[in-house]
Design a protein that fits this description.
alpha+beta, two-stranded antiparallel ribbon, 10 strands
Length: 489
């Protein structure tokens, strides 16, 4: 019940309410204008705008029913109606992410400083070592290694010269594992490069339930070398850290999960860096040089040339081609190791009517097959031929999949996909030209066609679907809305 004798609101709160009311009216007005423009451009004749579209390359020139249904997902480009709520949610997620990073920073500092001083075996007092060696410890006295030692009890100077000041000159970066395994691809990794000794470490942040978290070393602190590419064998330096950079490590050198060790080389993709720390380290470093060799430039030109040839072809049937190729590669890969031969790739391009001149294909193969084994990872081949989403887009794809795969198993039952997919905000539904069930069924059909098992969706299949959809979307915000509207991320 509402009390009867409530005091009237003050002028301050009346003013706040009027401002809020004016903001809501203005936002709704802008939303209505945007919706009207979208309908004018896209909804005058939705059937004609999709069906009968022809490709200009002459290969498989009529769109299939699956292409038409996949293109329906591109209509989700308008901003969500509850944009204010989306902004608040995004800001809250940013604050939570910053807290996670700060927690990892503190854990790294504690680990590196305490292990260098207190945990050093040399810190045991000499009398304790002598008594333990000669069996002179008193009855009930625990061995030295089990005793709790304080910093002020130490007698021997540690060999490690690390100090908090030296460790503070570090570059923090976020990274992800390039993997087809959903559980590994969604691991939250935060790394640190220390300018004092050019060492690096990577920590994994884990959350158990709502309140329990921890941060554990994924790559132990050390000086590491590139394992692939033009700089193979050279130690990492500051110039190797930028958004989109790949960091490679030998899997056998680290205590990694078995699913990660299946590949001999672990590849981490840098997805963000601490720009302020980078600027500070650049200014204080006399040796920093951001150089790009001629070979790297030439390789990039080969990739861009091939991607340019195929972009127009894929703009309308990207989902079908990329998901179909992924399914084809998984079927041909009898060893289940992710690697295929040159002949396998040529046959795949022929099956999917993707024409690449022989000379360009040979140039591409020389770049990818740097180990001269005549085998190339088909995920790497796909990224080289078609390009890939930028890290901003990829972050939302991972966020949507992690929302579905809340148990972190690496695959999601199709039943859960159906439950979570929301078609209420699709423009055809808002215009009354299609039902929610029709839009949902078209999405599930196109997604199901890309899956090896029709009853579940793996991370790589989910990512391939949106990779194909991304090719036809130029604006990042439009692509993000395609994920926000149906998945609520």
């Amino acid at each position: 019940m509402v009390p009867e004798n409530l005091p009237s609101p003050t002028d301050r709160y009346k003013l706040k309410y009027r401002q809020y009311e004016a903001d809501m009216k203005e936002e709704y007005k802008q939303y209505s204008q945007r919706t009207a423009e979208k309908r004018k451009d896209h909804l005058q004749c939705p059937e004609a705008s999709i069906k009968g579209t022809q490709l200009e390359d002459g290969h498989n020139d009529r769109l299939t029913a699956l292409d038409e249904k996949a293109l329906l997902q591109q209509r989700y480009t308008s901003k969500p109606y509850n944009m204010r709520h989306s902004i608040r949610k995004s800001e809250a997620e940013d604050v939570a992410a910053e807290r996670r990073k700060q927690a990892v920073v503190e854990q790294v500092m504690v680990d590196q400083l305490s292990r260098a001083v207190i945990s050093d075996p040399e810190q045991s007092m000499r009398t304790d070592v002598y008594e333990e060696a000669h069996g002179l410890l008193g009855v009930g006295a625990a061995p030295t290694r089990f005793r709790r030692r304080m910093l002020h009890e130490t007698k021997v100077r540690t060999k490690s010269g690390l100090t908090e000041n030296m460790l503070s000159n570090k570059l923090r970066f976020d990274s992800r594992i390039i993997s087809r395994n959903g559980r590994n691809a969604c691991r939250e990794l935060i790394g640190f490069f220390f300018a004092c000794d050019r060492s690096l470490t990577v920590y994994e942040f884990r959350q158990f339930g709502k309140n329990r978290t921890n941060a554990l070393p994924f790559i132990q602190k050390g000086v590491y070398q590139h394992q692939r590419g033009q700089k193979k064998g050279k130690a990492y330096d500051l110039s190797d850290f930028y958004i989109g950079a790949n960091l490679t490590f030998r899997s056998v050198d680290h205590n990694l999960p078995e699913s990660v060790k299946q590949s001999s080389v672990l590849t981490l993709r840098v997805i963000s860096i601490d720009e302020a720390a980078m600027d500070f380290l650049k200014a204080s470093s006399m040796e920093f040089k951001q150089e790009c060799s001629n070979q790297v430039v030439d390789d990039s030109k080969v990739f861009k040339k091939i991607q340019g040839m195929l972009r127009e072809t894929l703009s309308k049937r990207g989902v079908r081609v990329i998901t179909g190729l992924g399914k084809y590669f998984r079927r041909v890969d009898k060893n289940r190791n992710g690697f295929l031969s040159q002949a396998d790739f040529k046959e795949a391009l022929k099956v999917f009517h993707l024409g690449i001149p022989e000379g360009d294909f040979e140039s591409l193969w020389l770049i990818l097959d740097d180990s001269k084994s005549d085998k190339v990872d088909y995920g790497e081949f796909t990224r080289a031929v078609f390009g890939e989403m930028n890290e901003y887009r990829k972050a939302f794809v991972r966020k949507a999949y992690m929302k579905l795969d809340f148990n972190k198993t690496g695959s999601v039952p199709m039943v859960d996909i159906r439950k979570c997919y929301c078609a209420k905000k699709h423009p055809l539904v808002l215009a009354g030209k299609a039902t929610e069930e029709e839009i949902k069924s078209s999405f599930l059909e196109t997604l199901g066609e890309s899956c090896s098992n029709p009853n579940e969706v793996s991370y790589s299949e989910f990512e391939d679907y949106y990779e194909g959809l991304s090719i036809g979307i130029m604006d990042d915000d439009d692509f993000v809305n395609i994920l926000r509207n149906p998945w609520g991320v």
